[in-house]
Write a structure and sequence with these properties.
- This protein has nine helices and four strands, in the order βαβαββααααααα.
- The protein is an alpha+beta fold and 223 residues long.
- A four-stranded mixed β-sheet has the order 2-1-3-4, covered by helices on one side.
- Helix 1 crosses helix 6.
Length: 223
């Protein structure tokens, strides 16, 4: 019997959090090996575990997978969260790429100097409510179904709901004008596997703070 997937990353969200969400949605238990020191990262690099000398890296099914989107695609394919056919997979990819663009803003936001954060938060909220949210609201309205693609749960739904939580951390009022997205968030959050993941004590990571950012800088020897 194959062991649990092992996730190699920092003890924070970053580019691993969407993988945690997807594994959790699929009901897959996993282990985490946190990178805490430069030596931890160097060891993974030197033993050939990191193809491009960077994380995230996930050990599963006898492989050491790198590159976030490749990992997501593999997990989604394995657990029937990647559409029924090529057309559905294409739509899932289109939607997921848009979500990845929005996610980049959340990855870099905590690293900004304090005097730049207010302006950046305004910019993120503007892009979310005027570019991304209307697009996904329109998709749901166009077919009247419960999920984005094929009326069944896919990795696109899970990624979108993850991002809806992030946006609400910036401003809880931002979903008020998007009733179908609010309904999707409630629907996904009530799935047993996700409901468990949202509970305190789960592998879900909190918003990054100065302490966690300093730990990451330490690993990369950033002053």
């Amino acid at each position: 019997m194959a062991g649990k997937p092992k996730l190699h990353y920092f003890n924070g969200r970053g580019r691993m959090e969407c993988i945690r969400w997807l594994l959790a949605a699929a009901g897959v238990e996993f282990e985490e090996k946190f990178i805490k020191t430069p030596e931890d990262l160097e060891k993974l690099t030197n033993d050939g575990s990191l193809m491009f000398q960077q994380v995230p890296m996930v050990e599963m099914d006898g492989m050491k997978l790198v590159q976030t989107r490749a990992i997501l695609n593999y997990v989604a394919s394995k657990h029937n969260l990647y559409g029924r056919d090529m057309k559905e997979r294409a739509l899932i990819e289109v939607y997921s790429e848009g979500m990845a663009d929005l996610n980049e803003m959340f990855i870099f936001y905590p690293r900004l100097p304090p005097d730049q954060k207010d302006a950046e938060a305004i910019w993120i909220k503007d892009k979310a409510t005027n570019r991304y949210f209307p697009a996904f609201e329109k998709v749901l309205k166009s077919h009247g179904q419960d999920y984005l693609v094929g009326n069944r749960l896919s990795r696109a739904d899970i990624r979108l709901v993850e991002l809806l939580y992030y946006v609400e951390e910036l401003d809880p009022s931002l979903l008020a004008s998007f009733p179908l997205l609010k309904a999707l968030k409630t629907r996904i959050s009530n799935l047993p596997t996700i409901k468990k993941f949202l509970q305190p004590g789960s592998p879900r990571k909190p918003p990054p703070d100065e302490k966690s950012l300093e730990k990451t800088k330490k690993v990369y020897n950033i002053k």
